Amino acid sequence: MRILLVEDEPGLIVTLTDRLVSEGYEVTSSTDGPSGLEAAATGEFDLVLLDVMLPKKNGYDVARDLRQKGVSTPILMLTAKGETIDKVLGLKLGADDYLTKPFEMMELLARIEVLLRRSHERAPQQPNGEFRFGNIGVDFRRAEVTRDNSPLELSAMEFRLLQFFIENRGTVHSRDDLLDAVWGYDAMPTTRTVDVHIAWLRQKLEENPRHPQFIQTVHGMGYKFVV
Ligand code: CA
Questions:
Q1: Hey, what CATH topology would domain 130-225 get?
Q2: For residue 31, how far is its CA from the centre of ligand 1 (angstroms)?
Q3: Could you tell me the distance, in angstroms and rounded to a whole number, from the CA of residue 1 to the centre of ligand 1?
Q4: pTM
């Protein structure tokens, strides 16, 4: 498992790297925001440990930009003591969890394990990066979708929505959750946008779009992807 550590305190970099390596992780570190974002955007890491106060670009901006690039690597933010409101902001911008400095090493290791396990469970089952349901095939690496093995044209937003559904299948998502997760924090679409995109996706994926089998409406709550 590869961990990217984005942190500017030399002492903490040494301490964390030593401990994580002794636990069997492969650790790479970046010491400022832009280089951290560049490394994380390669998608080569299983987890990002992201400090908030960083030179040149803070951790919130790094998390937001990473999610806007469509990279879903789990992010564990490291915040300074007492930054309660900032923690909430961090989670809203795409972090998966946060830890307040100073923290116990055992707690950090436990949080890392939970995030890695969770993202592993969410990942597509097939080792070649493909996910199949019904007569639909989704190739995540090439961002291609097929129906009965023929190419299906999906817009970038439809693909992101489908990917989110697949990664979070079985869970009910409100329209607001979908807006935050798929359209992003800075976007200003309305919940009507979600309904329109769902309708388009159903037209393309469902055998009978009026009686959807995969993208189900949960009345009064939102939508759920079921396979
Ligand atoms: Ca710092």
A1: Arc Repressor Mutant, subunit A (1.10.10)
A2: 9
A3: 24
A4: 0.57
